[in-house]
Amino acid sequence: MLNLLVLGTYIMPTLPAIAANPKTSSPQSSKLTQADKRAADEYRQLGLSYRKQERFEEAIAALQQSVTLDPSNLDGRIILGWTQHLAKKDEAAAASLWDAIYLSPTSLQAFNAIGIVYLVRGDLPQAVILHSWASLLKTDNEIAHYNLSLAYQRLKQTDLAIAYAQKAIELEPNNPHPFVALAIAQWTSGDRASAKRIFREAIGVDARYRSSEFLDFLNEAGFSADQIQTAKQVLTSS
Hints:
By secondary structure, the chain is mainly alpha-helical. It is 72% helix and 0% strand.
């Protein structure tokens, strides 16, 4: 795990920079009315409904209107940011989630989400910083530990990748994703026997992982294309 002092030297310069962002310097409105809040909630629910239908452009438009009406609503900004991420608009997603963090610098949900955004777009050092901070905010944060494993595997720091995947499995033993993360980290480290054993455990949790084609869906769980190929290699050899 990252040393707290080392992490602090990275994360602390980032947070004041948010306060200097002119877009987020005055997120709260002194003239917010109950009617505005009700309308914002209606737009938020509409956006979530569109998102469920994968109508992302309409979802984003509704959620942006919700944030405009109620800019101090933390959940509204996080939902907007995550929806933008699902729509593969990661620059916009990061901006929305930083706005949320400006409102609440200890929001676990915001840090989990923005860490995933940076992981998926390949900004691995920043993803490590953000997920490490999230793991400090909540030590049993399985999302942070799992994503740290994926990030460290891509950074070729396999000892850390293995350690974080093992912790994620401990925290969420019924989720096959940490098992696959551990398997590819062990495979990369050269411990092929352990990798194959752990992958069989992943199949025990979810039998769909017997299918090489099904592994393509791991991109929705934060795996890179190279990591998915490694997972397929482990499966083939198991």
